[in-house]
Amino acid sequence: MSPLSNSYLNAEQINKKESFYPLHVFVCDNCLLVQLEEFESPQNIFTNYAYFSSYSKTWLEHAQEYVNMMITRFGFDEKSQVIEIASNDGYLLQYFKEKKIPILGIEPAVNVGEVAEKKGIPTIFKFFGTETAKELVSLDKKADLLLGNNVLAHVPNLNDFVKGLKILLKPNGVITMEFPHLLKLIQQKQFDTIYHEHFSYFSFLVVQKIFASHQLTIFDVEEIPTHGGSLRVYAKHEENQKFKISENIAKLIKKEHEFGIDKMEVYSNFQKTIELLKQQICKFFSTIKNENKTIVGYGAPAKGNTLLNYCKIGNDVINYTVDKNPYKQGLFLPGTHIPILDLEKIRVTKPDYVLILPWNLKDEIIQQINFIREWGGKFVTVIPEVRIHL
């Protein structure tokens, strides 16, 4: 049982009843889609959202590299239309804007989208699906490039979403979607990336099937390092002969088959693996407590809330966590009620250990608060295993 990972609490709410939901992952034995039940609607999860992409330097660099690469590869220019689904605070579209390429963001979270609008990024506040796609087409808006980073996993109605992509894409247009790769999740024991806001967990084999069922062909795929290992897929209309099928596709399918992503035992064994990791994590924290050492967190990411709630690590063990995002500061983590403070608190309290909750940004964070080494402070990550970074 776990709370919604982005349902941060204010001081008044921590004394009130909190909602917990089963965090139970299912695998369809027919199509092999790995999925959660929908306990809470996307409207309740994403309409006022706590995640702002621009607070991560690593993520901004990733976005800028993507924009430059897409312009070089496909020749997008001021005559092209770029549309991003789940455009967040404009972290990516700002780089297309700098190149004078027409842009449009689609973002359901008004509080986040308003930040993009202040940057001069036109944004419509809607969930994406066939209805939104048809509305845009009726306004003569179709995409030469239609992109979505880390949105596919957040969609409960996948068929409606992918059908919407088909509607909104120009005949020779390109779709790119980035999402965490299920193979990496299993291989690297990334159980903390499982939370209610992520309705689905994708292998390439499954995504290829979903797109093909809507007459969209994936013509290229890249393995990228973001979020602990993601895929970026490139799709086109089935009838579009402009783009050749890359050999990357056959290579990745072979890799997934060799790993056994199409076999049920890979999924059932994962539970046992994670229970062993949980024991290792809990043992580490009880050792710290017994030695009277102090540990605090860095970051308040959704994945951290799965980790802490599953391992039952609360504010009696972790005094506080810090986050650069002012939207989260002054709030408390759901379930564990660990307070979220400003970064400077670390200098004041001089903890023995800092647990890096967004482990995918480990290098950026270690560089940012390397000053903890002045008093012998150490960094800790616990995925895929407990590791102290000296």
Automatic annotation (TrEMBL):
Domain C-methyltransferase: 225-384
Keyword Ribonucleoprotein applies: no
Molecular function terms, GO-annotated: methyltransferase activity
Short name of one Pfam family: Methyltransf_13
InterPro entries documented for this protein: Methyltransf_Zn-bd_dom_put, Methyltransf_Zn-bd_dom_put_sf, MeTrfase_14, SAM-dependent_MTases_sf
Keyword Transferase: yes
UniProt entry keywords in alphabetical sequence: Methyltransferase, Transferase
Highest taxon above the source species: Archaea
GO BP, sorted A to Z: methylation
Ranges for domain Methyltransferase putative zinc binding: 1-46
PANTHER family (alphabetical): BLL5978 PROTEIN (PTHR43861:SF5), TRANS-ACONITATE 2-METHYLTRANSFERASE-RELATED (PTHR43861)
Protein's UniProt name: C-methyltransferase
Organism: Nitrosarchaeum koreense MY1
